[in-house]
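Incident log, structure service

09:12 report received: a user says their structure output differs between two submissions of the same chain.
09:20 pulled the input from the user's history:
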Amino acid sequence: MNSKVPSDYADLLERPIVGVLATVSPDGSPNLTPKQFTWDGAHLRVSQTIPRKKFVSLQANPNYAFMITDPDAPARCLEVRGWLVTVEEDKGAQFYLDLGKRYGETDGEPPSDADDRVVMILDATRFTTK
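09:34 re-ran on a clean worker, output below:
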């Protein structure tokens, strides 16, 4: 396990690939959710709404794992582990809309749940390759 992103896997964090965010629910059960994300070199950022299970789970237990699989070579994977650092308001769902553009979505309208949207900032501390 590395504390830095292996250079030959960094592209998986830079490309618009949907990853899978794993958390543990307050009742102890695992929860997996596909997520669009951005990477700033130290943190993953994902969009979420406050009432949903993923938000509740990370509030109860801030630890997470995030798996990114290369769509061009499915045996090539990067697992990121860390914890929820902070949650920021997503005013007007702007981060959500920016994510959509990053992933090729053309609808530029805020979603109906825009008032509940937040940006979860996840510290990335360990990296495992497969």
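09:41 both user submissions now match this output. Likely a transient worker issue. Closing.
09:42 reviewer note: The longest helix spans residues 94-102. The mean pLDDT is 94.
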